[in-house]
Amino acid sequence: MRRPLGHSSNMVGLPTAVLASPLFNARPIALDLPHVRATCGALFEMLGEAEDMADAVTAFHAYMAATFCLEAEQRDPLDKPGRKRPDDGTRRFRSSYLRLLKGWVFDSASPEGAVLKGWVESRFGLLPTWHGEPITHIPCPAWVRYVEQKMSSRFHGNSIHCQLDLVFTFCQWMLARFVLNGRQHITLYRGVNAMGEDQVLERRGKREALVRFNSLTSFTGEREIADCFGDKILTVQVPVTKILFFDKLLPRHPLKGEAEYLVIGGDYDVEMATL
Fold first, then answer.
1. Average pLDDT over residues 63-71
2. Distance (Å, rounded) from C-alpha 235 to C-alpha 239?
3. What is the per-residue burial (b if ≥16 Cβ within 10 Å, else e) of 115-143?
4. How far, in Å, CA of 134 to CA of 214, rounded?
């Protein structure tokens, strides 16, 4: 199954077809969202003074809480609410990037997953290829469900795309500053039982293939963890510039425990192995 990869334009100044291609993955360039640094200078001033990852995380949490008026438990999953509820006992819900990550953990085809994929579509031009079932054409039932969920006010509020812009930019800053020491790629793994969500476009040998991943796809940094998710293991050299979130970005978050990475999709050269 093949279908258009995405829109003809995006926010990173690079054709979507190029961004999604194996050529880009082999020779990546930075995918900057230029409006983020232009509008959030205070955050990067604080990050510039950070001496280690812990200092940077403290600055990031403080900026997100102040800018988006997040409740304590929306800033850190282990924090308890720190202020009293209104007299009527209700609390105002504000969409939070951490709530989206929590929903993604349980089901990537959830409404939270739709909002995350919608952000990828908006910023990078990539359309989802799967949302609970294949998106074979537009419109189809899976596409309609995706659009309805990504636009629902339940999670698509409180400038949630701007929150995700900051998460992506902070992730890229942390990887460059403290983690990868100039490396452009990182080896990641994905365990699958059947190639349902991931489309094999071309076989290039017994163990090599060209695979189209969904617009946003989960990987792990540990081969042993990938073994738990399927009897087929995909090994991919992922360009750092396509990583939205990684396990060590924050000390506590919903993706902990599986060394998980959230990666912007497209067509990747992969190595396939069977347990």
1. 86
2. 13
3. bbbbbbbbbbbbbbbbbbebbeeeeeebb
4. 10
